[in-house]
Amino acid sequence: MRGISLFIRYFVSILFVFSGLIKANDPKGLSFKMQEFFEVWGVHGLNDYTLYLAVILNTAEIVLGVALFLKWKPSLTNKAILGLVLFFTFLTGYTYWTGLPKNCGCFGDCLPLTPQISFFKDVILTLLLIAYMFIEKKGTSSRPILLYSGFYSFFSGFLIVLLQIYLLAHLPILDCLPFKEGADLVEGRKVPSNAVPDSTVIYFTYQKGKESVRFAASDFPSDFNSNLYKFVKREDHIVRKGKNMEPPIKGFYLSGVTNTDSTDIILQLPSAILIFSERANDLRDNFSALDRLALQEYNPAIPVFIVTAQFEETRKLLSSSRFSGWPVFKCDLKAIQTAARTSPCIYLLSKGKVVRKKAAVDF
User: Which of 87, 112, 116, 85 is nearest to 99 (CA)?
Assistant: First the structure.
């Protein structure tokens, strides 16, 4: 029994620390995932707090994982971890059964799992923890394996909070998003080559005299004509769901004053600098960084474009600044949040490929 207890403790604790580290690498990613859940549930009032909740949740996972590994206050730690796993099981189960949101983000964008795998993972974890608590209750030693185990547990939390604060000001250490350095944005906007479309059967309903007639598109009646049959409705039935029909990069369209889609034109340029900014105020607060960018990357042959979700506000801000010559394009907020985990975030592109990507504060 002791061997089983050790295996469960090490397995669950390492998994918790790994999960916490993966998500702590990109706290905003978890924050956006929380907003998706709140949007589904109609709880919009909590959206302003999701980033704080994400940092707290990531920290809690790591602290509890370390505490379990070191056997610090086993009774308290075991109950806290079981409570957290039950909460995760509810979320993954909800996603699995409803399909909303499309995934739960258990391991962030670096290790995407299907809702089904996520749910069964949490069910197995729940059973393992219950078994572990039962074995521990039968008399396994509850002494911590290290002196000052509590200190090490909370010190790990302190370090992970500092790491997340740093990453929120800069960029994730491990970039797993479709806008990462080396990515081809032109290809990323296309549906994957291995995509399989939905297989559908089309049914029509017509009125033939006093009779309602329903038939498949491949099985029209031999006496069909528009005088005899009056159209009522059409139904599309999916008989086999398609796969990979969405491009990795979604919603990335750049348009200016005329609302003309200029995305392809910009991505075909030999070189271009794109500055992503969610809000106009983010640019205003980083004018000094933009000055440094202009000095370091100055080349009249390389155009600079501003991409923002606040189009009019940004144009007004830049019109009275030394950056008034930089064209402004609007883009979907979610696409900007995917491309720029910090705002502003600066890209150097070469024919649509991401050559370099930096937070503005790093200039």
Answer: 116
Instruction: Return the sign of the alpha-carbon dihedral for residues 167, 169, 172, 176.
Output: positive
- Residues 211 and 315 placed together within one structural domain of the fold: no
- pLDDT tens-digit map of 110-156: 999 999 999 999 999 999 999 999 998 876 666 777 778 999 999 99
* Contact between 326 and 305 (Cβ < 8 Å): yes
Residue 360's pLDDT is what? 94
Residues 121, 9 within the same domain = yes
**CA dist 28 → 34, 155, 175, 182, 277 (Å):** 10, 23, 12, 22, 15
| DSSP letter (8 states) at residue 241 | -
**Residues 278 and 143 placed together within one structural domain of the fold:** no
Residue 363's CB: how many other CB atoms inside 10 A?
18
In percent, the amount of the chain with pLDDT more than 70 equals: 98
- 43 and 111 co-located in one domain: yes
CA dihedral sign, ordered 225, 229, 233, 239: negative
Total domains in the fold of the chain: 3
Residues with Cβ within 8 Å of 36's Cβ and at least 6 positions away in sequence, in order, are 101
Q: Which of 187, 211, 240 marks a domain boundary?
A: 240
Which of 169, 191, 213 is where one domain is finished? 169
Q: Are 127 and 40 members of one domain? A: yes
Identify whether residues 141 and 257 lie together within a single domain.
Answer: no
Q: Which residue shows structure tokens 């696409």?
A: 335
Single pTM value for the model: 0.87
287-325 pLDDT per residue, tens: 999 988 877 766 778 999 999 999 999 999 999 999 999
Where do we find the tokens 């061997």? Answer: 3
- The three-state secondary structure class of 294 is helix
* Structural domain span for residue 44: 2-169
In whole angstroms, what is the distance from residue 93 CA to residue 46 CA? 22
